[in-house]
């Protein structure tokens, strides 16, 4: 049996009660009609000026909550001449609330993958993981969630715009506040500088390792044609040099995101990211209370054509 937090619910409804008078009858009607047109369903049963009940429906159907008032802030408030008064009331409401984790911002449906990835990265036998899979699966979001749980220091490098190894060297050196050589950049010099910085960071974090997230490395993992194969070879060589250590277990861990596997490297393990289970997809795409969507309509969103991600 679900337990309803009546105290929080009454506080939120008190906010609705406080801001409703800032709308004229004409403004209230404009808001209610907008929701009737956009949401239909239960909203169609509202009287045209019943703004307070409209707020209650938004809450009951999950469109607004204690942690998420953006719909009212960014849309509803703009329709009132008392916009600033409404925003002040909402600001005071937020300030009066205890800070809580927002369940709507948690990564849904990936707990098993996160646990497996964390275990592999924590192991001395695994130094690098390549999260691969089709576009739109959430590889980057998954990798960033893993980074947020990392106990040591982590860096995120977006290599979407990088076209050659020099661009990768520059990106990493610059992000680590290391001097970037002018002209030709030699691999061993870059690796030496980065490894020295990693040892320094590890010391500050009392032995916890350093994690590099290399995002969107598709250009360097595709290996198509001669130029692509040479680029892939140089990229793998760079990764393996970074991970070289005399002791068992490198202080550096690598987390890559790519559409392709990286089978040619002995030090990089491929980890396939698959589509979310249907139950999680339904929760994300169709909030609680959205009962007007028919099964065949859901299928169009949840089962996109092969190799054509919806997002």
UniProtKB/TrEMBL annotation:
GO function term, MF aspect, one: ATP hydrolysis activity
Domain ORC1/DEAH AAA+ ATPase: 129-258
Pfam entry (one): AAA_22
InterPro entries, A to Z: AAA_22 (IPR049945), P-loop_NTPase (IPR027417)
Protein's name in the database: ORC1/DEAH AAA+ ATPase domain-containing protein
């Amino acid at each position: 049996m679900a337990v309803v937090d009546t105290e929080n619910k009454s506080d939120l409804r008190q906010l609705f009660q406080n801001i409703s008078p800032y709308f004229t009858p004409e403004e209230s009607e404009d808001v209610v009609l907008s929701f009737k047109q956009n949401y239909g369903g239960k909203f169609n049963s509202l009287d045209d000026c019943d703004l307070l009940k409209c707020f209650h429906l938004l809450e009951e159907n999950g469109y607004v909550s204690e942690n998420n008032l953006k719909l009212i802030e960014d849309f509803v408030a703009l329709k009132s001449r008392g916009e600033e008064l409404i925003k002040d009331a909402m600001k005071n409401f937020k300030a009066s609330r205890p800070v809580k984790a927002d369940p709507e911002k948690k990564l849904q449906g990936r707990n098993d993958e996160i646990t497996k990835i964390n275990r592999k990265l924590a192991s001395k036998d695994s130094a690098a993981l390549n999260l691969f899979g089709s576009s739109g699966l959430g590889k980057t979001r998954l990798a960033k969630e893993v980074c947020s749980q990392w106990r040591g220091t982590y860096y995120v490098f977006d290599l979407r715009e990088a076209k050659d190894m020099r661009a990768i060297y520059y990106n990493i050196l610059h992000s680590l506040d290391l001097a970037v050589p002018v002209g030709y950049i030699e691999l061993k010099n870059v690796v030496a500088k980065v490894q020295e910085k990693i040892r320094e960071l590890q010391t500050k974090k009392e032995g916890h390792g350093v994690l590099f997230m290399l995002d969107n490395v598709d250009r360097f993992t595709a290996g198509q044609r001669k130029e692509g194969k040479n680029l892939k070879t140089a990229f793998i060589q760079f990764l393996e040099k970074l991970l070289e250590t005399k002791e068992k277990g490198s202080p550096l861990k690598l987390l890559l995101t790519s559409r392709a596997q990286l089978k040619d490297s002995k030090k990089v393990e491929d980890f396939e990211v698959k589509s979310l289970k249907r139950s999680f997809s339904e929760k994300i795409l169709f909030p609680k209370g959205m009962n007007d969507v028919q099964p065949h309509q859901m299928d169009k969103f949840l089962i996109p054509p092969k190799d054509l991600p919806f997002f």
